[in-house]
């Protein structure tokens, strides 16, 4: 479904003409650094081989018509429909990109677009950011716009925050836009400074299992926003711009100033998670990927106990993966469902996935899905 050939063929049938090009943007896995992005902290994601792929060509009537192969739906909207709230559902991510570009002062040409995706939706792998970044990459080129890669990520984030209404940080869109193959992206979410970090798991005899528990989650729901508001209130009480400004050396003093245990645990997660990201970058730079395993385990414990964003399916998957031979494992993504990642011996992902599937069956849960996560390139034209 998510191939250049499939979207191009549907484009031809829909429009009677050839697409001007085909563009793609990937989903992402966050290796470590959860809920640190909107706290001005650090993250370490990498782009996946799974992507949203999109065939497109300009229209002369100033409207945008988009066909989703996954949804088997077609939506059309014009300039009058760009006000937030006028377009909803999956098409809001397309209209929101046009809106964000327009709000930034760019003239966006109308277009026909056909898209397909093999990024699992609702799994914490940023299918929405992949959609935004694929659409944005295509429209920027079709409209002849000069928008730097980091600015593209920021515009896609603005689409998600202000048009769709999901209070995410910059992590997802930056990963989908900026990542390079065989690398993770170290991103400072305050300054937006970033660099590629080598991630050659195969050379160390390792691979990264990505397992979808098929417990859907949504960033638009209240829990994600509640965590963000708690962090912002804690930063206000502590007199700092963001929790990124609290270091491990001063964590105990900071916690003593907070009014309740819930807020203290939220802060402890963010501060220790930032420290884990920095340690993970040093490990990757040194070419010691096996040493990432304890950081994955510690991150999961922090998300489970301090930030309270895991769910029983996710915890069972992590525990089972470790028992089945994973060196380390954790939930990845915003939480309340979605995926886990596990660092496993090369060639061992299927055995670990089968063990989790058996544990899920015993517990009465649905069957999970899994694949090997391979660090891949960000948004680009593919034909």
TrEMBL record:
Q: Where does substrate bind?
A: 34-37, 224
Pathway the protein contributes to: Carbohydrate metabolism; galactose metabolism
GHMP kinase N-terminal domain spans which residues? 93-178
Keyword ATP-binding part of the UniProt annotation = yes
Subcellular location, record wording: Cytoplasm
- A GO biological process held by the record: galactose metabolic process
Binding, Mg(2+): 128, 160
EC numbers for this chain: 2.7.1.6
UniProt xrefs under Pfam families? GalKase_gal_bdg, GHMP_kinases_C, GHMP_kinases_N
| First-tier enzyme category under EC | transferase
| Keyword list, A-Z | ATP-binding, Carbohydrate metabolism, Cytoplasm, Galactose metabolism, Kinase, Magnesium, Metal-binding, Nucleotide-binding, Transferase
Under the heading SUPFAM superfamilies, the entry gives: GHMP Kinase, C-terminal domain, Ribosomal protein S5 domain 2-like
The record places domain Galactokinase N-terminal at 9-58
**Swiss-Prot/TrEMBL catalytic activity:** alpha-D-galactose + ATP = alpha-D-galactose 1-phosphate + ADP + H(+)
| Marked site: Transition state stabilizer | 28
Q: Which residues cross the membrane?
A: none
Name all GHMP kinase C-terminal domain ranges: 287-361
Keyword ATP-binding tagged? yes
Instruction: Cite the GO molecular-function annotations of the record.
Output: ATP binding; galactokinase activity; magnesium ion binding
> Which residues does ATP bind?
68, 122-128
What is the stated purpose of this protein? Catalyzes the transfer of the gamma-phosphate of ATP to D-galactose to form alpha-D-galactose-1-phosphate (Gal-1-P).
- What family is reported? Belongs to the GHMP kinase family. GalK subfamily.
What name does UniProt use for this protein? Galactokinase
The record lists the organism as Microlunatus flavus
Q: Which gene encodes it?
A: galK
């Amino acid at each position: 479904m998510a191939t250049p050939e499939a979207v191009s063929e549907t484009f031809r049938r829909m429009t009677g003409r050839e697409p001007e090009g085909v563009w793609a943007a990937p989903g992402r896995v966050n290796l470590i650094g959860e809920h640190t992005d909107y706290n001005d902290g650090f993250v370490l994601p990498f782009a996946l081989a799974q992507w949203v792929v999109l065939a497109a060509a300009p229209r002369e009537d100033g409207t945008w018509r988009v066909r989703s192969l996954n949804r088997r739906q077609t939506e059309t909207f014009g300039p009058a429909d760009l006000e937030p709230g006028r377009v909803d559902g999956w098409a809001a991510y397309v209209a929101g990109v046009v809106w964000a570009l327009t709000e930034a002062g760019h003239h966006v040409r109308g277009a026909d677009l056909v898209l397909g995706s093999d990024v699992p939706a609702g799994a914490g792998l940023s299918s929405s950011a992949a959609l935004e970044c694929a659409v944005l990459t295509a429209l920027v080129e079709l409209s002849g716009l000069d928008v730097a890669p980091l600015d593209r990520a920021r515009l896609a984030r603005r689409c998600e925050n202000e048009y769709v209404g999901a209070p995410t940080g910059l992590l997802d869109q930056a990963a989908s836009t900026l990542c390079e193959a065989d690398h993770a992206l170290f991103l400072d979410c305050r300054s937006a400074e970033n660099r590629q970090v080598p991630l050659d798991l195969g050379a160390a005899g390792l691979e990264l299992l990505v397992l979808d528990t098929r417990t859907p989650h949504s960033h638009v729901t209240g829990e994600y926003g509640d965590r963000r508001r708690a962090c912002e209130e804690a930063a206000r009480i502590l007199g700092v711009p963001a929790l990124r400004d609290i270091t491990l050396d001063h964590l105990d003093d900071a916690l003593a100033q907070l009014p309740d245990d819930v807020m203290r645990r939220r802060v402890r997660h963010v501060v220790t998670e930032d420290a884990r990201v920095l340690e993970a970058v040093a490990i990757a730079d040194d070419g010691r990927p096996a040493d990432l395993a304890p950081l994955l385990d510690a991150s999961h414990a922090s998300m489970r106990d301090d930030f309270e964003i895991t769910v029983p399916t996710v915890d069972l998957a992590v525990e089972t993966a470790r028992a089945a031979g994973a060196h380390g494992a954790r939930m990845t993504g915003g939480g309340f469902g979605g995926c886990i990642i596990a660092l496993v011996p090369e060639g061992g992902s299927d055995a670990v996935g089968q063990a989790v599937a058996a544990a899920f069956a015993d517990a009465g849960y649905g069957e999970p899905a899994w694949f090997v996560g391979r660090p891949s390139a960000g948004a680009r034209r593919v034909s």
